[in-house]
Design brief:
Distance between the termini of chain A: 31 Å
Helix content of chain B: 55-70%
Oligomer: heterodimer
Low-confidence stretches of chain A: none
Radius of gyration of chain A: 17 Å
Number of helices of chain A: 6
Mean pLDDT of chain B: 95
Largest interface: A-B, 117 and 112 residues
Mean pLDDT of chain A: 96
Shape of chain B: globular
Number of helices of chain B: 6
Number of strands of chain A: 0
Shape of chain A: globular
Low-confidence stretches of chain B: none
Largest sheet of chain A: none
Order of helices and strands of chain A: HHHHHH
Distance between the termini of chain B: 18 Å
Strand content of chain B: under 5%
Radius of gyration of chain B: 17 Å
Number of domains of chain A: 1
Structural class of chain B: mainly alpha
Chain lengths: 137, 143
């Protein structure tokens, strides 16, 4: 195992989690966001399972001085709540509600070759590129 | 409507948590998909390979489902091309402005009890729910 292989394996496991959890079905995502209608709480179980697992393992992993294959952990340290955090999340939520897609499932579902996914993913990458142009990294 | 799948969803969630933990243990990185993809625009020297391989893994992990259980990757709702483009732009731009999406904030950040991630997650679920309400009950369910 090395850094690159681990990243690939992590991607594979992530995609399987999305697919098994129901995140790659936009109808199911919209059903989760439909609190006043025929609400499907399944996605709370996806988030709950993911957070429970990672919260425990995160604490164990952070006891190490470094990761296995790189020199340091890259963990966000900011704690301020600013307008960009709120505004960005608000815009993302609107797009998520409109389409039922968030970034991970949009990429995994590309393998289905459905035109809707291709259009969404292309626009999503366009939106990300727009951000890079506006706020030079 | 889709049916309630608590066990499958819980198992899927555990896999996502394991994936995030593997990436942290091996590479020291946060499994935030919008950050991983957005960090390639433009690519930065020595910070590209792991991103590409993770994305390749996201695609490879979807393949067995497409081959043997394609129902898992079905959309199930009707959206016009212009709605999909608008939604994609909002998701791409919004996640980069807000430094994360369902994975980076919703899973990794909440696991660390990051206040930014908690606020972000509540915000995108609320605006998502308002959007779905408008779509389903004011605009007739398709756009």
């Amino acid at each position: 195992m090395n850094s690159a292989l681990a990243a690939f394996v992590a991607g594979v496991i992530f995609a399987m989690g999305l697919a098994i959890g129901g995140m790659t079905k936009p109808a199911k995502v919209v059903g989760f966001l439909d609190f006043t209608g025929n609400w499907d709480p399944s996605l709370m179980f996806v988030m709950g399972g993911a957070v429970m697992t990672h919260a425990i393992l995160y604490r164990l992993i952070r006891k190490r001085p470094t990761p296995l294959f790189t020199e340091a952990f890259s963990i966000p340290t900011r704690t301020d709540i600013d307008a960009r955090l709120l505004g960005g999340a608000a815009l993302f939520g609107v797009g998520w509600g409109l389409s039922g897609f968030c970034p991970g499932p949009a990429i995994t579902s590309l393998v289905s070759g459905q035109m809707s996914v291709l259009i969404f993913a292309a626009a999503m990458i366009g939106g990300m590129a727009l951000h890079s142009v506006k706020y030079k990294p | 409507m889709e049916q309630f799948t608590p066990i499958a969803s819980l198992c899927g969630g555990v896999l996502i948590g394991l994936s995030a933990s593997l990436l942290l243990l091996s590479d020291g990185k946060i499994a935030g998909i919008s950050g991983i993809v957005g960090g390639l625009l433009p690519p930065i020297k020595n910070d590209t390979a792991w991103r590409l391989l993770f994305i390749l893994g996201l695609l490879a992990g979807g393949l067995p489902f497409q081959l043997f259980l394609p129902e898992v990757l079905t959309i199930g709702i009707t959206r016009s091309t212009s709605t999909l483009i608008l939604a994609g732009l909002l998701v791409g731009f919004g996640t980069r402005v807000g430094n994360g999406c369902t994975s980076g904030h919703g899973v990794c950040g909440i696991s660390r009890l990051s206040p930014r991630s908690l606020i972000s997650t509540v915000t995108f679920i609320v605006t998502g729910a308002i959007t779905v309400y408008i779509m389903n009950y004011l605009l007739g369910g398709a756009l």
